[in-house]
Amino acid sequence: MAANCQHAAALGVRLGMPIAQAVDITTTLADQHNSSRSVANQSVPPIPAAIIDEHDRVADRRALHSLATELQSHLCPQIALETLDRFKWAGRFRHDPEALVAEIEGVTHLFGDEPGLLAAAATILKRRHLKARLAIASTLGAAWALATHAPSQTRTKDPTKNDFDFFLAPAERTREALQTLPPSALRLNPTEVETLQRLGIETIGSLLQLPRNGLATRIGHGLCHRIAQALGEVEESILAIDIPTEHTAALELEYPTDAVDLIRDRIIRLIESATASLRPLGRGVLRLRCQVDFTESPPVTLESGLFSPTLDLDHLSNLMIGAFESHACQSKVTHLRLDVLQDAILASTQPSIFGPAFENDTQTDWTRQTDIARLIDSLSGRLGEDSVRGVRINRDPLPEDTVSDFPMTQSRGRKLATPPRRRRSKAKSSATAEDHDESQLRSGDATRKGAPTTHDAGRRPLQLHPSPQRLTPLGDDQEPLGENQFPPRFRYRGRVWKVHQHWGPERIETRWWQGPMVRRDYFRVELEDGARWWVFRDLNHPANWQLHGSFD
Description:
The chain has 552 residues and is an alpha+beta fold. It is 32% helix and 23% strand. β12 and β13 form a beta hairpin. The two termini are 30 Å apart. 23% of the residues are buried.
């Protein structure tokens, strides 16, 4: 889980917690609260059911980059996304950058003063319906500490005025502004924070009173480096985002028209004009946008994404004209504007040995896409970008998180795909698992006879449930179910299922730096009716059994 609301956090839901565990917590507490409310006090508001939405990190990163670009155009030129270290900051795993940093020296006079600059930034954020905490300090580390850890200002009764917190720390008062903040505000990793807590250091002020040499010896040089960055003793540069190069073209029609052939011709000309500056750079189009203004109807914005970069004029024109023809024109067109929203380096460009004139021939256009890319673009244009999706493999041990899908014409989603593990590690893991299966076969246990090996396709189920389904373990009628005993029966969906034989366990654990540890023992189960299940026991809660997949 990447994020949660304040109400969910009050119920005990934490970042990094599995969705199934979070749903169990909220459901149990909601049932208890609502039942006690119905008996004791009807005036107490009920706890609503949990709303679960998929975390789209591609959309989050795109939105943050879009905001940075807007601030760069209207606020100051030096805007950057925060850089994340390899480890967590203050015990919290940050999946992606969540903050923007800016170098505002030399621009504050344009807004009157520093509070005026913060007010201008808040206005831009408010237009996007965003809430934020804004801080200005002499160092990046101090500004980050104030924005993320300083206590919120006094709240008013007007909720519209509670969207922003502003913090100002003059250069001569940087140390004073950091005095009451916790040490985690210095962007420390969890080990350093825990060590400081054991030493009884609860504020940065207490930390600054200790000698640096002793801190470096006992805790590490990283802590001293963070202190020096926050106090301005060591410079910390920012890597500003690049201002996107504009590749655009516009056309004001001399007379409003609804002639489709004429509009097609003008769209083709605009595409040719907007993409002309990309060819010398060796770059191709990844996303196009066309805005069409009408005499009476509101303007229409058409967007088309591509699977791979291209400068093929025919292909780009067909996509954009197809998008235009899918909209019924209620009035005449007065103005056309075409923008290249995203471009990328062409996969391959090869000049012709017969000269530039021959190269311009469509038969030898080396910027053309492959047939599969053109098919994906065409389907996405007709069905919608979200309807044509690809699958990428994630390096995550949890089975439900090993793959994820993404729109194939949004190229940034493909760049986030994690490369496969090194073959050496995979072979080692496979050998270990195979030895484990063979040792089970040699043990003589009848319940494990004929267990599939690592080379058998039956080792993993063909179908996984969208989320694990809860099972109720049942023992024999005569004997109670022991703690380490495999249940001979399960109750699932109002029916009792009897186990014929099972294989396992196979342990799957999450990485320690991803938050709360998830530890499961998976079993392959064959029931009396021949059905085969893939179940696991949550080792953090041994009585919790879940059905995760089916082999049928």
